[in-house]
Amino acid sequence: MMEKKEIKKIMVDGKEFFSNDPKVASKNLPVNMIENIKAYDKKSDLARVTGIDDGEEEAVLDLTVKKGMKQGWFGNFIGGVGSKDRYEAGVMANRFTDNNQFSVIGSANNTNNQGFSEFGDAGQGLSGNAGSGINSSKSLGVNFAKSTKNLELGGNVSYGKSDRDSKVNNTTETFLQNGSSYSTGSNNNRRFRDDLKADFRLEWKPDSLTNIIFRPSVGYSNTDSYSDGLTQTFDNSYNPVNKKVSGSSSFSNNLTTSGNLQINRRLNSKGRNITLRATYGYNDGNTDRYSNSNTEYFNFDNDSVQKIDQYTDNESNGYNYRLQTTYTEPILNNRFLQFSYSYQYTLSRSEKYTYNALDNNMSANDFDRSYYSQVPDTAYSNCYENKYTTQEFNLSLRTVRDKYNYNFGISLEPQKSTSITYVGDYTKSSLSRNVLNYSPTFDYRYRFSKQSQLRMMYRGRSSQPDINDMQPIRDITDPLNIKEGNPALNPSYSNSFMLFYNNYMQKSQRGLMTNLSFNNTINDITNRVSYNEETGGKITKPVNVNGNWNVRGFLSFNTPLKNKKSHWLLIPMHLMRTWWDILLPLRKLLRIQRII
């Protein structure tokens, strides 16, 4: 047994299967093909190669395919039709051998079912949900894996197409110092989206001392969205404060690509090795948006009306890269000292230019750029360029023993960020900041047996506020929901402590798993919302707050009741004695005597 974690990946015979979404395997692979299921924490590529835990593990399920299922093709098919033209269909075909895997999955439905594959935006991303409304989705995906003695190849390509039609009605109450504010709203939305994604992986061992891993990925999406809505706000006496009628249409596309290259070389048989890592990322997107709104305010001497008809051209792009070297040196007996240094650079740009309509009687469905002014409205336009430079120095010590292992270390992160906000040739704001973050870590595990362990872990983490949140710029695109930055934001620091114990007695089929965690954050960054009683609008601003903490705990216990005729009054005593037996390893460690 293991601590309660979200499964991040599903492996098939030790190979990644549609690595972006574990639900693909859990919903599609036939049960009768599985011989064994293993759940474990899969280490990162760096930790797996070097043997030094870096704390970046993820929970996975590893499915072993029966030998008889590796002799040909197998799969499944479902289909159905219903009233109101509802339908759904899905198909999956697989061919697995000892060294090769190939799978094809496809689905189509208009029943809000994420279906067989959940690819693309057939439910808002590879691991999202379909959201509100009626959703129609089509998807197709291919997964492959091939391995030889020194080379492993794998990857998946998926395409998704979705159509979402939603109607939402809502009622909210905002609590104020001298009463409440009430609002009602309705919104109709139609969205069409296409997604194409590809992920690949390569692991090559040119010799017994060298390991090379490369993971590239690319994605492209195209989204068309249309919406219209009505909102009304009332004061504590239910008198009208404002009324807003709005409509918008947007057309966007986005391209992303990323990659991770890791080269490791073992320098001796005792654990000395050196690792070089390089990562990169690139994104390029564009959105054309046509919007109009008519807002009436009733709390003034003379009722006023604010009308907005605009076209917005928003282009964003950026790139990042990170270079890292890690050196591991064995010291004494089964102890390892690890030092790493990394340099990361990130550049992001965004140019949002807003143009007012020449004719105030236009609608958001007039998709003609010539109907709008050629000069941008500087009150609604905002462009920025952000640059981040981060260096990280990390030193850690790991000790490995038969019964226990521990790892503790500290990292220092000098960070520099600069940002310029402008419109055309006019600079609206320039901001620069230098920060030194530090993060201690501690991880201790004691294994009583293969089925029982005790684990304690502490992690401290310092994080820098988003440079966009620090811009002293107001976003007034929506007059009833204004957003502004806060240049006085400080870095936040979080403390996380976790205590975990589990024991499983295979002979009696009794198990116990318990976990306790505590987290608190100093200078936590959260959004503070203020209310304007005159307009009924809200202003959102990020601020630092203290006092945010949480404690979580869970207890899982199972045992068979062998005597089915046992009186229910005897069950509590039976459970107490069972728990006492399960806690035997922990009692021996703490030298606790029997009291039951």
What does this 3D model show about the protein?
The protein is mostly beta strands and 596 residues long. Helix content is 5%, strand content 64%. The strands form 3 sheets. The chain has an 18-stranded antiparallel β-sheet. Strands 2-1-4-3 form a 4-stranded mixed β-sheet. A hairpin with a 2-residue loop joins strand 1 and strand 2. The radius of gyration is 29 Å and the shape is globular. The two termini are 26 Å apart. Residues 115-130 and 592-596 have low confidence and may be disordered.
Keywords, please?
mainly beta; disordered C terminus; single chain; about 65% strand; about 600 residues; globular; 18-stranded antiparallel sheet; 4-stranded mixed sheet
Concise synopsis of the structure shown:
With 596 residues, this protein is mainly beta.
Give the helix level as a range of percent: under 10%
Strand content bin: over 45%
Our Rg estimate from Cα atoms comes to 29 Å
Shape: globular
User: What structural class results from the helix and strand content?
Assistant: mainly beta
User: Average pLDDT, to the nearest integer?
Assistant: 83
Give the ordered list of helices and strands: EEHEHEEEEEEEEEEEEEEEEEEEEEEEHH
Tally of helical runs: 4
Quaternary organization: single chain
Number of strands: 26
Unreliable runs, pLDDT <50, ≥5 residues? 115-130, 592-596
Please report the distance between the alpha carbons of the first and last residues: 26 Å
